[in-house]
């Protein structure tokens, strides 16, 4: 007698292009809920889901009459669009670039990645400021254009900078930078913005990276 299957259990694993660490932990819950919705909408049963910064695991109870390739295609296409529309990956790669050489080429004091601009407060060491800015812009532009499947300039050619007169001026500037998301109405508490130095500050105002 032939076997009759009512459900087939399959583990699915797929990775970020180039195995880059682009899925920030702050977005895990929202991303997993979105993917759960895709699976449920196609009348499959999601048993488990978990993701790392560079890949995703799914355990799915697949309908026997469904094609696995179609489910994977829909998950990858829709979740990629979902992530890109929220600019999670772009913001994360910009933040990673800005903080990468902290303590080596410069001393990073504060930063925030906004939807259409970036603020960074840092103390220059031996590496000239213009060289630091050029490296940030060049690296992130190449990565962002590749992810967004676009060409051309990503950043404006120029940038604005100002010299910190004293520690009081630096403190005012730091507060201004970190309060940007709250001032723009994106969050209530600056610490809730996932691409800012505010979330790394302890009760004494010290950044703990």
What does this structure look like?
With 209 residues, the chain is of the alpha+beta class. It has two domains: 8-86, Alpha-Beta Plaits, CATH 3.30.70; 90-200, Transposase IS200-like (Alpha-Beta Plaits, 2-Layer Sandwich). It has six helices and five strands. The chain is elongated and about 80 Å long. The chain starts with 7 loop residues before the first strand and ends in a 26-residue tail after the last helix. The mean pLDDT is 90.
Descriptive keywords:
alpha+beta; Alpha-Beta Plaits; 2 domains; three-stranded antiparallel beta sheet; two-stranded antiparallel sheet; 6 helices; elongated
Structural class: alpha+beta
What is the H level of CATH, i.e. the homologous superfamily of the largest domain? Answer: Transposase IS200-like
- Principal-axes geometry comes out as elongated
Whole-number mean pLDDT: 90
SS field, number of helical segments: 6
Radius of gyration: 21 Å
Q: What is the straight-line distance between the termini?
A: 62 Å
So what's the CATH class of the largest domain?
A: Alpha Beta
SSE sequence, one letter per element: EHEEHHEEHHH
In spatial order, strands of the major sheet run 1-3-2
The major β-sheet equals: 3 strands, antiparallel
Poorly predicted segments: none
Count of individual domains: 2
Name the CATH architecture of the largest domain.
Answer: 2-Layer Sandwich
Q: Helical content, roughly?
A: 25-40%
CATH topology category name of the largest domain: Alpha-Beta Plaits
């Amino acid at each position: 007698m032939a076997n009759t299957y009512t459900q087939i259990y399959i583990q699915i694993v797929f990775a970020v292009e180039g195995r880059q660490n682009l899925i920030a932990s702050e977005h895990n819950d929202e991303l997993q809920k979105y993917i759960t919705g895709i699976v449920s909408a196609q009348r499959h049963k999601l048993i488990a889901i978990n993701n790392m910064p560079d890949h995703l695991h799914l355990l799915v109870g697949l309908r026997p009459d469904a094609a696995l390739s179609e489910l994977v295609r829909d998950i990858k296409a829709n979740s990629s669009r979902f992530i890109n529309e929220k600019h999670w990956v772009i913001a994360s790669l910009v933040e990673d670039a800005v903080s990468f050489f902290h303590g080596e080429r410069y001393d990073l004091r504060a930063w925030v990645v906004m939807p259409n601009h970036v603020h960074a407060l840092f103390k220059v060491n031996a590496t000239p400021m213009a060289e630091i800015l050029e490296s940030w812009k060049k690296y992130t532009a190449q990565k962002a254009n590749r992810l967004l499947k676009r060409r051309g300039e990503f950043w404006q050619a120029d940038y604005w900078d100002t010299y910190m007169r004293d520690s009081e001026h630096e403190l005012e500037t730091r507060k201004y930078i970190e309060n940007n998301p709250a001032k723009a109405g994106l969050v209530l508490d600056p610490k809730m913005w996932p691409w800012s130095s505010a979330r790394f500050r302890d009760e004494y105002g010290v950044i703990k990276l």
